[in-house]
Every structure is written in structure tokens, then in C-alpha cells.
Amino acid sequence: MMTTAPLIGVLALQGASDAHCRMLEQRGARVRNVRRPADLDGLDGLILPGGESTAMLRLMDREGLFEPLRRAVQSLPCLGTCAGTILLAETVEPVQPSFAALPITVTRNAYGRQNDSAILNAQTALDGGPLEMVFIRAPRIDAVGEGVTVLARRGDDPVLVQKGHTLACTFHPELGSDPRVHAYFLAQIGHH
Ligand SMILES: NC(=O)CC[C@H](N)C(=O)O
User: Fold this and answer.
1) How far apart are CA 53 and CA 106, in angstroms?
2) Residue 86 CA, closest ligand 1 atom number
3) What is the interface pTM, i.e. ipTM, of the complex?
């Protein structure tokens, strides 16, 4: 286990980084917004937040961040949420660049107009009963590959998955008051 508080980078090009930072700080972690390659130095973990994955990709290109982030997500414990999960996926529909750090197939904005946003309660493999999940223009995980553990589902669809030190969910665990996904992520870092 770590003796000092872990330092977690939160990609802050676009989208929902502040609420992640608050959740992490409440759990005793130190946080750093990641906007350029040097911000990745010395991190113990990384969060890729929700937002618009296409906009993030454009901004990454501009900052020369795509390749440094691709390397970082191979070597660091990483939590992707919503758009962040799209960035981690091996296969994205419609096709767009990604870090291919997790063998999953995702379809962007797959829940259709009526279900564009939804708040659901569902069982997960985490301790402590059902988890409130906030979905906003969420991607759907259509397939999981070898070695991927499904920790929660929405109906039949995986919504929280893990492979090794990479964790990804299609909902927004930073919205709302239940810190269990962040706590689980930080626990993975302790074991890393
Ligand atoms: N809340 C979100 O992160 C939505 C993801 C967004 N629809 C995308 O395709 O990137």
C-alpha cells in the first residue's frame, strides 16, 4: 500500500473534470488537471472524464497529447467515464481514433433520444447495495473481450468493466453523492 496520498491526473481539456477532482479529494487523493504532456509526469493514476470524445480528440491533437496519453493509459491505473470509456475502447462505432487500452466495443450515443439521459439504480459487484448511475448521452458497451470483468449491467449491457488496472463505466460516477466507483479505483491504485 502507498504511504503518501496518490496523485491522480484528471484530463481537463473539455467536459466534466471538476466533480471528479472533488470526489478524489474527498477520498484523500491529490489531483492534477491534465492539459499538456508534462502534466502526466509522476502520476499514480489517471481519469478520463465524460464530455464529448470527438472534441477531446481534437484538443488532444492540438496539444500533442494523444500519444503521451495513449502510453500513460497502458502503464497507469486508469478510470474512463462515458466519453473517457470511448477513448479507452479498442473498437468505437462510428469509427474514431482511440487508445485501444480495453478490449471492448462501444457504440456512441446508443440509447436513443428518449433514453438520452437517465438515472438508474442497479446492482454492482461493489460492496454496499445498488448504485445510482447517471447516464448522459451514454455509449453502449456491445462486446467485451478476453480478460474483461463486468462489474455492473444496465439490463443486459455492461456499464462498469475492468481489465487489470483499467476501469471504465458508461455512466457518470462523479455526479451524485455515491463515491464507491472512485473509492474502488483508488483501492486498485493501492494494489498496483
Ligand atoms: N456524457 C458523455 O461523456 C457523453 C459521451 C458523448 N456522447 C461522446 O460520444 O463522446
Assistant:
1) 12
2) 10
3) 0.96
